[in-house]
User: What shape does this take?
Amino acid sequence: MSLSSATRIEVKSLTEHLWFNVPARRGFLNITSTVEDLVKKSGVQEGLCLVNAMHITASVYINDAEDGLLHDYEVWLEKLAPHEPVEQYHHNRTGEDNADAHLKRQIMGRQVVVAITRGKLDFGPWEQIFYGEFDGHRKKRALVKIIGE
Amino acid sequence: MSLSSATRIEVKSLTEHLWFNVPARRGFLNITSTVEDLVKKSGVQEGLCLVNAMHITASVYINDAEDGLLHDYEVWLEKLAPHEPVEQYHHNRTGEDNADAHLKRQIMGRQVVVAITRGKLDFGPWEQIFYGEFDGHRKKRALVKIIGE
Amino acid sequence: MSLSSATRIEVKSLTEHLWFNVPARRGFLNITSTVEDLVKKSGVQEGLCLVNAMHITASVYINDAEDGLLHDYEVWLEKLAPHEPVEQYHHNRTGEDNADAHLKRQIMGRQVVVAITRGKLDFGPWEQIFYGEFDGHRKKRALVKIIGE
Assistant: This one.
């Protein structure tokens, strides 16, 4: 009996937690190069890369690495889901003051899924992966999961 | 000829439809334990779990299982995409009254993708999967698709 | 030694770029049948299909193919993230006038992940895949990545 190379597939996976500590209530971190390094480390040539916030007051999203835009996101999210007055949110009756962060995170999203093609993130010209923090001042995590062959 | 165990990979998949009937126009259901049971049933150790609404007036999203927050989502979504007056939406000229539900669902999202690590949903401390209904009073479905090894 | 058919799994993948040139600033294109054809071409029976905008001022989302609703999305997104006045956005100080497009795209989302079951997109009754353009008048791409067995 002989096995063709096509059947000798090994499904590969990589799991890694990224830790952040944003020293303010809100902030945006470009994590693209960290994720790129993990794709390389995984050895996956064709597959999918999931990156998600592990906390429910933070986002992982893909958009432009341009400071003016990051400012615009901050202003816009505060308009759509204002932090103050904190009493307007029932969630804050639990002793929290972060209800707005749970709302902002829904606009920006929990996760991105990126194609891996020929061993690299298959990105358009301006796509960059960001961690968006809406309730910082403490250590929080994002997860990178890579699956493929 | 010998085959190492590493090449004896069997790609596993599981597909399951979850049915809901929310007895109101809007509501949120925590479906985390149901999805966890399906991950266990699938036998997948390393992989991805997709959960998506199969209807376009509902969402699947991940956030906090806290009643105050669910109230806040309800109020906030109604502010961003009000149900009334129904005449404000062209979609409702088709005889529907659910245009707002198609908008609300875009804010909250259609799907989540969750990593499976060592046979379990790889979750942060507060992540819970919710089905968000924005046009209820009838049977609707979500899909769980698990792929991995 | 004998190999059962279950171990002769070949992981399959397909990568394809779709090109669009929307002849207006904004517009919505139904790309469902194109994606369906690619699923068929891939030969994947059980797997996942990722479809994402490769540009950061466009979306791929799933909702209804109903002209009234597309009108409603246009009006609603313009209300939540207005194009004018362009000076209100710091991003536009770079010489761009598309900051609103970066915001609108976050509401509608970058990507969808769809289950493939028995060789087909596993869709509910009204699910259709759309490319949403928010800064058109030029050639732009979406990516289709299919992974499975």
Summary: The CA atoms of residues 39 and 120 of chain A lie 7 Å apart. The radius of gyration of chain A is 18 Å.
